[in-house]
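Summary for the lay section of the report: proteins are chains of building blocks that fold into shapes. Here we show the chain for NAD-dependent succinate-semialdehyde dehydrogenase and then a coded description of the shape we predicted for it.
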Amino acid sequence: MTISTVLTSRLKDPSLALDKALVGGEWIARAESGKTFDVTNPATGEVIATLPDVGKVELVRAIDAAHAAQKAWAKKTGKERAAVLRKLFDLMVANADDLATILTIEMGKPWAEARGEILYGASYVEWFGEEAKRVYGDTIPGHQADKRIIVVKQPVGVVGAITPWNFPNAMLARKMAPAIAVGCTMVSKPASQTPLSALALALLAERAGVPAGVFSVVTAIDAAMVGQEFCANDKVRKVTFTGSTNVGRILMRQGADQIKKLGLELGGNAPFIVFDDADLDAAVEGAMISKYRNNGQTCVCANRLYVQSGVYDAFADKLAAKVAQMKVGNGMEEGVTTGPLIDENAVRKVKEHITDAVSKGAKVALGGEPSPLGGLFFQPTILSGVTSDMMVATEETFGPVAPLFRFDTEDEVIAMANNTEFGLASYFYSKDVAKIFRVAEQLEYGMVGINTGLISTEVAPFGGIKQSGIGREGSKYGIEDYTEIKYLCLGGIE
Ligand SMILES: NC(=O)C1=CN([C@@H]2O[C@H](COP(=O)(O)OP(=O)(O)OC[C@H]3O[C@@H](n4cnc5c(N)ncnc54)[C@H](OP(=O)(O)O)[C@@H]3O)[C@@H](O)[C@H]2O)C=CC1
Ligand SMILES: O=C(O)[C@H](O)CS(=O)(=O)O
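The coded shape description reads as follows.
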């Protein structure tokens, strides 16, 4: 297929821009169906690549190759797998500039932020390369004189992975690294809007020594077909998914027949609470990164900002002053802090949330309109006077809109913060230690940022409760999800 020179001309190593899918160790330029799909730059609307739209034939071939390769890969020692992941980490860092350019041009986020994502994704590869040597088991005192009990952990087997467009490198690295660290193999399907980052990662993995078949990247428009095959094919032992709760629900239903092992990182609706005793400048800094990182297109973005009455006006003024300094534009341009939204649906949802809030009494304190740049660009926005009956209170905006809610008491804000089916990330600012423990213990979320707006790191367990998902990614907890526990009972030991 094709890759635009708009992209390749910007790369030190143009070979990192792939117009092929990786199926069982073979780079294929053309699907058997002959079908293709385009990848466009959301900042300009230009077609930057045309890729093979692989079908079930190629997908099953990738799954069969992963199954065939898995036993040999699992027989490698943890140390041998660690060495391959270390090499991949080194290659990701060495090629971070090119990987960032590919990411910005296919997804839109500003280049500096894209490079940050590459290093974030690489941190998972580094972390799980180290963990590969530490998949410990147990010995348990026997329950009878002649018994000896050993607990071992073994790789789950073939893993199907489906990843979203908003972090096209890091979300895949955070799945692929633990999987191959423990001896699993993986077939992955990136979002059709942003497949190039995944393909570049697959090329570097190949260069790092990941054997053929161990890691495939299938490029497909028919995501539902991929999910159905992952759930129905008994060679696939686990499905790991990051994306919307709706699709997570579909996968759970589809996986039920085989009791498929699932890892689900789904939607969020994060509260961001500023108490009267907060350090306001720190709270504003935290709100800026928690709300506007990736143009508000992250599952852990502050979706509702609750500000206690005593500091509401001061916080709102300080936040507006900071947001007014943001620069909307093409992520490849120097100084741009805010790129385009991913597509027209995203723009439509942002507009809908603003219109609904204003119709119910909220005020636009800043922004509120599409950017004069046109296209998919939107002004960073602050809404004031927001109330719980508005869509922004119950739906994830996934865009650059900060809705400010006023509250009076601690009990009132905890009840409002917990009043959602989601439970991924939450944040609050206070200097009172007793209050910090009281509030943190009552918030019904998998992750709580306290006096910080950025909690994502490879060393901690990332994930949610309620309808935000199942399982954790990153940290020592993240590798467990790719292993099965086996208990050996040795008898006759007289
Ligand atoms: N918890 C977390 O870490 C994250 C959660 N999210 C959540 O996801 C949403 C936004 O991301 P978005 O990418 O639009 O989410 P989607 O769920 O629409 O897409 C995520 C991935 O799933 C694929 N997909 C779509 N439909 C199906 C299906 N029926 N079966 C199998 N796979 C399918 C998509 O393919 P294709 O795009 O090619 O259609 C894409 O690769 C938000 O709610 C956000 O909060 C997003 C990122 C991280
Ligand atoms: O996809 C996402 O939103 C990521 O999980 C957010 S983070 O890990 O970069 O915080």
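Put simply, here is one thing we learned. The two ends are 67 Å apart (CA to CA).
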